[in-house]
Every structure is written in structure tokens, then in C-alpha cells.
Design a protein that fits this description.
The chain is α+β, with helices and mostly antiparallel strands. The chain contains one helix and eight strands; from the N terminus they run αββββββββ. It has a domain of about 110 residues: minor pseudopilin epsh domain (minor pseudopilin epsh fold, 3-Layer(bab) Sandwich).
Length: about 200
């Protein structure tokens, strides 16, 4: 008795096309959520890095009993910044500017494309922490995921970081639950690229 040849089973072209169509449909439904998740995680990471840098500068100022400056390295904060001990403050031209007598502590590269970081007019170019931990001024920073290119805060895509005169750093709250943080006076931020207030 002879054995029957093994049968080969395979997908038909129709079954393959149906499977691919279902996979494409599922991918199309999941992709926007995945993109939002990645963007949200990226924004959270940037916020954490920025708050960490500010807290680091403040703690070094207290620890060393010296002036510590966080200064932008480009035209805008999102292009990067440096943290340094500002030792040479002998003349106005040397204050809050890294020169050969100062001690460079950290350099941060530019943020990912389409993310903005802007300080208000008190923090246009730098923020300085004094030896007692106080800030050079009271002010705030706005960080936005500006992928839309509209330059306005969109729900869940922007954060407000406030630094008070005591040097304490806190995030703006979203008391009306619209996804856009408010300033301490209750008004919402209105731009990602213009001074927050």
C-alpha cells in the first residue's frame, strides 16, 4: 500500500487580502493613539529634564554659596542651555554670562524639533539662583508640543513652570480641566512662542 502524498495547505489570495485589510484597519485605529502617547511621554520627559536642571542649579548655588546661572545658548531656550557657577561678577558685562573665570557645570542640547521652551520677560536669556537659593526674579516658562505649528497651547500639549522669588519651582495647575495650565492668577497661557506673562 502506497502512502498518499502529503497535502499542502496555504492561504488563498482572498484570505490573504482579507487578513491584510483587517490588519491595516486595526493599525489605522491604533496609530493615532500611539502617536499621542509617544508625544505625551516626550513632553513629560522634557518637563522633567527642565525642572531637574532648575532644581540642580538652585541646589548647587546653595551648596557652593555662589551664584549659579542657567542661560540659553541659542536665540530661544529650546535651542539648548548651559548651567554654570558665575564667579566673575566684577563688571556688568561679566554677570550672568559664561566667561573664562566661571565654572561650567552642564550643557543641554536642543529640544526635539517642534517643541518650544520660552521664558517670560524676566527670564528672556537666563535665570540666576543666589547663594541662599532665591531666584533672580519671579517668572515662568512655557513648554509646548508645537507639532501643529499653530503656536498656541493645545489641550494636554503644554505646561507652565513657575519660579517664585524664593527660587521654588512648581508646575501650573489646570483647575478648569481643559488640558491647558493656568498662571497663578488663574488666567490661561495663550501662546507657545510669546512670553507667558
Amino acid at each position: 500500500m502506497q502512502n498518499a502524498p502529503p497535502t499542502i495547505t496555504a492561504f488563498t489570495l482572498l484570505e490573504l487580502l482579507i487578513t491584510l485589510s483587517i490588519a491595516a484597519l486595526l493599525f489605522g485605529m491604533v496609530m493615532p493613539s500611539f502617536t499621542r502617547l509617544v508625544s505625551s511621554n516626550q513632553l513629560s520627559s522634557i518637563i522633567n529634564e527642565w525642572v531637574t536642571e532648575l532644581n540642580y542649579a538652585r541646589s548647587v548655588a546653595i551648596k557652593r554659596n555662589q551664584q549659579v546661572v542657567v542661560r540659553k545658548t541659542g536665540l530661544q531656550w529650546e535651542q539648548g542651555w548651559q548651567v554654570f557657577v558665575d564667579i566673575n561678577r566684577s563688571a556688568a558685562i561679566n554677570r550672568n554670562v559664561l566667561d573664562t573665570d566661571d565654572i561650567l557645570l552642564r550643557v543641554h542640547s536642543a529640544l526635539p524639533i517642534n517643541f518650544t521652551l520660552r521664558g517670560n520677560n524676566r527670564f528672556t536669556n537666563f535665570i540666576r539662583f543666589k547663594p541662599n537659593g532665591t531666584s533672580s526674579s519671579f517668572g515662568s516658562f512655557v513648554i509646548c508640543d508645537n507639532h501643529s505649528g499653530r503656536n498656541i497651547p493645545e489641550p494636554n500639549k503644554s505646561r507652565l513652570i513657575t519660579v517664585n522669588a524664593a527660587g521654588r519651582i512648581h508646575l501650573g495647575l489646570d483647575t478648569d480641566n481643559d488640558g491647558i495650565p493656568e498662571r497663578d492668577d488663574g488666567s490661561e497661557i495663550v501662546s507657545c512662542t510669546v512670553s507667558p506673562f
